[in-house]
Design brief:
Length: about 290
């Protein structure tokens, strides 16, 4: 082996080691989520940043801070997150305990539980891994898991679908929705950025809400069903124009013209995004969760 080859191999090992230490997110990472009133239109942009580390009960936690947007209490955000051996833990201030929230090294069929305490309610969320994959974002290989999340007491609700290293969940961050709340909720990840990578949702023109074009998210009216099983027909109606399908990483899977009703099917579980243009120049965006 030549000296150059040895140096290249050593650099690769060093890069892998550094990546393994930042599977959640490095300090300075930012997530930009749409915020919306439950069942209503977009109202604000929620920006969450990893601002530093905090020592709690002998363990170092990455501290999250909301820099923009209204936080009206419908969600409990896991503000203190710590990693150990590819597992992500959160600190629950109400109990003073560390709780497992996610496993990045899980394989298909693995399951675990997360206790949730909020609004005086106690719940347990049961996670199940449906599928795993690797995705590439700005030259980095990130593990991506398709998960389902079930509530035992029907008090709090987790968000299943695609969960990816650094990006987290495309539906919501590590937060849990209080079941009877009707205030502000997260409505989708628009972009993620840190010193190494930048990811942007393929269905939006920019991180901010002002896209400058007619962008409507009405999956309930033109996509049926929006939650489907593998191989189940999904019906697209009311679109007269082009339609593009993306996977959770933003990779384009297909593009076609739609006139009248169109039937599509998905062979793999995951989160898929549809973008359709209409005859009058509007853009329809929607999401399908396949389990």
């Amino acid at each position: 082996m030549t000296v150059r080859a040895i140096l290249a191999f050593s650099s690769a090992l060093f890069a892998t080691s550094i990546h393994a230490q930042t599977t959640f997110a490095p300090i300075g990472a930012k997530w930009s989520y749409k915020q919306a009133h439950w069942g209503g239109p977009d109202t604000a942009l929620m920006v969450i940043e990893a601002i530093g580390d905090t020592l709690i009960a002998g363990r170092t936690y990455r501290r999250l801070q909301i820099n923009e947007g209204m936080y009206l209490g419908c969600h409990q955000l896991a503000r203190f997150l710590s990693e150990s051996q590819d597992s992500l833990f959160y600190f629950a201030s109400t109990t003073g305990q560390h709780h497992l929230v996610f496993r990045w090294n899980a394989v298909t069929g693995d399951s675990w539980s997360t206790p949730v305490h909020q609004f005086g309610q106690h719940d347990t969320l049961d996670w199940t891994v449906l599928d795993t994959s690797l995705i590439w974002v700005d030259g980095l290989s990130l593990r991506s898991l398709e998960v389902s999340v079930e509530s035992r007491q029907w008090s709090s609700f987790g968000f299943g679908g695609t969960v990816t290293e650094r990006l987290g969940s495309l539906i919501a961050p590590f937060a849990w929705l209080y079941g009877v709340c009707d205030g502000e909720v997260f409505a989708g990840l628009r972009c993620y950025e840190d010193a190494d990578i930048h990811w942007q949702n393929p269905l939006v023109a920019q991180c901010t809400l002002g896209v400058g074009i007619g962008e409507r998210e009405e999956a309930g009216s033109w996509i049926r069903p929006s939650l489907a099983s593998r191989g189940e027909p999904v019906f697209i109606t009311g679109v007269e124009g082009s339609m593009t399908v993306f996977d959770a990483t933003g990779r384009q899977l297909s593009a076609q013209n739609v006139h009248g009703e169109q039937v599509i099917r998905f062979d793999r579980p995951g989160t898929y995004y549809l973008r359709a243009s209409t005859a009058i120049g509007e853009m329809l965006v929607g999401r399908i969760l396949v389990h």
